[in-house]
Automatic annotation (TrEMBL):
Pfam families in UniProt: adh_short
GO cellular component: cytosol
A single GO molecular function term of this UniProt record: oxidoreductase activity, acting on the CH-OH group of donors, NAD or NADP as acceptor
InterPro entries assigned to the protein according to its UniProt record, in alphabetical order: NAD(P)-bd_dom_sf, NADPH_pterin_aldehyde_rdct, Sc_DH/Rdtase_CS, SDR_fam
Family: Belongs to the short-chain dehydrogenases/reductases (SDR) family.
CDD domains in the cross-refs: SDR_c (cd05233)
Highest taxon listed in the record's lineage: Eukaryota
Gene Ontology biological process terms from the UniProt entry: folic acid-containing compound metabolic process
Organism: Cucumis melo (Muskmelon)
The protein's name: NADPH-dependent pterin aldehyde reductase-like
Length: 263
């Protein structure tokens, strides 16, 4: 069956939307349609995950700083489903930008069921004492403060809704030490620590995990390896997204505080 010709029938009950999907096996399957916020949807893993989840008839609330890439993503999402996908130009390092994003999300009745804190920056391979000060600010502000900004503005909305799963994108670099990657590693170790601390603060209806996506061929991996050819030996974001979407949708409150990995 062609991706674009999959038939969905929708039923709204209270706050939840149920999809009935006609599968290749000839059976109808019922699934709840979720509102999923993903930061950094302009390229790489965030974009591929947004497209895969839209294809499964979930609603995407996405952001990045690149308006032209958001504009090109929009029709692709709506091609998969007519859900009220919502893309917003946000710099996660800016508290006021994230605050405006949260206000717009509330005004559009799109408080997320799931948040994927995916936006991040990597850095060139070098010793910490050779790292440029701007690079330190950019990586820590994006990977750590950006993740905190999203949590500060969106977790209260999830608490009000009495449900929510927060997934903070980590890395092998957040669980192991790698020479000449101290800056990026320390930002991802911070994401791991943050996730485990916040897990102890959340009410029991919510959960937070860190997720190592594995190595995937993106601009970020090419920057880290210093070589597009070497990076291209790894799976593409599209290949990765199918497994990742199943993992994201399968996380429950019993996973609270866990460090998960996509293998
Ligand atoms: N690829 C891998 O092999 C790998 C391995 C381990 C972990 N990870 C993690 O997986 C996540 C995605 O990585 P990726 O490889 O897909 O990276 P990528 O291709 O470089 O994409 C990064 C995304 O983050 C967004 N972003 C960066 N700074 C932002 C900001 N200040 N505000 C809003 N959005 C911002 C970018 O959008 P704009 O530039 O348009 O704003 C872009 O959409 C990251 O957390 C990364 O650490 C990746």
């Amino acid at each position: 069956m062609n991706r674009n010709t999959i038939n969905y029938y929708k039923l709204a009950l209270g706050n939840s939307h149920y999809n009935y999907r006609f599968e290749e096996s000839g059976c109808w399957r019922m699934a709840v349609s979720k509102k999923i916020l993903i930061t950094g949807v302009s390229k790489g893993l965030g974009r591929a995950l947004a497209l895969e989840l839209a294809n499964r008839n979930h609603t995407i609330i996405g952001c990045s700083r690149d308006q032209s890439k958001l504009d090109s993503l929009k029709p692709l999402l709506f091609n998969f489903s007519s859900n009220p996908h919502f893309l917003f130009n946000v710099d996660v390092t800016s508290n006021s930008s994230v605050e405006m994003f949260a206000q717009a999300v509330v005004e559009n009745n799109l408080v997320p069921d799931i948040i994927v804190n995916n936006a991040a920056l990597a850095c060139r391979k070098c010793k910490i004492w050779e790292t440029e000060v701007e690079e330190v600010d950019n990586v820590i502000n994006t990977n750590v403060k950006g993740t905190i900004n999203i949590m500060r503005h969106f977790i209260p909305l999830m608490i009000h809704n009495k449900q929510g799963i927060i997934i903070n994108m980590s890395s092998d670099a957040g669980r192991a030490a790698h020479r000449e990657y101290a800056l990026y590693c320390s930002s991802k170790w911070a994401v791991e620590g943050l996730s485990k601390c916040v897990a102890k603060e959340l009410p029991e209806e919510l959960a937070i995990v860190s997720l190592d996506p594995g190595a995937v061929y993106t601009d970020m991996l090419a920057l880290c390896l210093g070589d597009h050819h070497m990076a291209s030996q790894f799976p593409s974001p599209r290949q990765w997204a199918s497994k990742a979407a199943t993992t994201v949708l399968g996380i429950t409150t019993s996973d609270n505080g866990a460090s998960l990995t996509i293998n």
